[in-house]
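[step 3/7] fold_predict: job queued, chain A
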Amino acid sequence: MPEQTHSLILVNRPGAQDVQDFIEIAERMAAIAPRIGVHIVDAAGNAGVLPREVWERPALTVSMTLPAFRPRRGPLYHGFPVPKFQQMRKFAAAGLPVPRTLAYRLGWRLKHAVWGEHVIVKPTAVRAMSNGDAVFVMRTERVADLAPVVFPPGHAAREAPLLVQKFIDTGEYPWSYRVLTLFGEPIMSMIYRAKNPRPPLDVPDEELMRASFASNVDPHFTCTLEAEPEVLDFARRASKAMPRIPLQGMDIIRERTTNDLYMLEVNPGGNTWHFSSKLAEEGRKEVSREERIAQFDAWGVAARVLAERVFAEAA
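[step 4/7] structure written:
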């Protein structure tokens, strides 16, 4: 067995990932990069739980979420929240197509010539973002009148700016891609599709606002593994907009008439490890953990990109 010359510390957050996933990735790394010692720690732990020799070697630490754990040496890559407005600015700066987006102030009137026929209005406050029930499609000229009604005083959505976004129509059954990347390499790619059709866009305002236009609101969506080369390349490009975030759950949509792709967000907090996360328990009844891993040989890809990152950056 070759002498270990580098250390990789993988930080596990129970509920966000199953530690068994990291154990299996470590086994794959032992086969392709035996000089790297892989050590798994709890997100709430401290560097003292690891043997002294771990910190005597060049080290790299990776956490999919924001950890309390702090390494004694070497770079630390981790997930962390990035406001949606800031994400959109980063995507645009990287040359990625994004829907026109604005931090909306209640009472503002929007121009049809700028925004088109319909817009999406949704909160950015954390307490109001748990599901798609707070996402509304409105006629552009009616936003100033309707937004204060659906987000009345005291509503959790008012704790942070509202977001107004040009409506990108993905079709009668709203759908989106979710591409999960690790250091820019896809390790899972799915399509979320609404089970129920959206209403025609010419229905009265009240009916339009009662409808769900989100494709990933449990239990009203289906998920299937899909790997379109164009979308995977798009995701690789998008990952470079926020290179310090190791795990990115990218939401990408395709406009139904032009076929153009648009970037929505990367869910940078890291709660997207849906091979084993508690959030995706229901989804794994439809597409199992084993099927998700097998799509791209996720553990093999993870082992390779982590080894490359350790040899390039451990210090």
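[step 5/7] annotate
The two ends are 23 Å apart (CA to CA).
The longest strand covers residues 185-194.
exit 0
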